[in-house]
Amino acid sequence: MTDAVRDRDGLRYAVALIEIQGGLVGLWAFLHDLIQTGASVPLTLLPGVLFIGLVLAASVVAGVALWQDRRLGYTLSVPVQLAQVIWFVSAGLTVRISASGWLLADVFLRAPAAGGLVVGWQFDAARKSGYALSLAPREDFTLALNLIALVILVWLGIRLRGLLPFRRVR
Description:
Elements: H1 3-37, H2 46-67, H3 71-85, E1 86-89, E2 94-97, E3 104-111, E4 118-124, E5 131-134, E6 141-146, H4 147-160
Helix pairs in contact: 1-2, 2-3, 3-4
């Protein structure tokens, strides 16, 4: 086995573990929150709740398929990562999905209510859950780019374009 093959497999296993672990942790927190507050979720948030649950479950499926080096893993990982790449907080809606477990690395643009514009970054390694969905009013507007999801998307794009060929199953 060459070093290039081992490196490629190492990246695949790392991404698969991130997706499996992040999806399972997110699903656990999601189901826990749903059991506690399910009856009080406004109907307007129901599509968002279903979408978050679908992304977290798809993350686990994609991670397992990726671990097994199946094309389904690569193909399913793309929409899973796309759903996580941008998150925002606005006056009427907050949306964030992060199936990377307890790890978030972002670059963000924030417009505080007091005026001005803040560009910054954050690395958060101790978060409660992998998602946020809220209609609660916020004074600040934040638009952020999830760097972990972006790096995984670039790697997936390279793999799916054939620059790093798939292993042949015999």
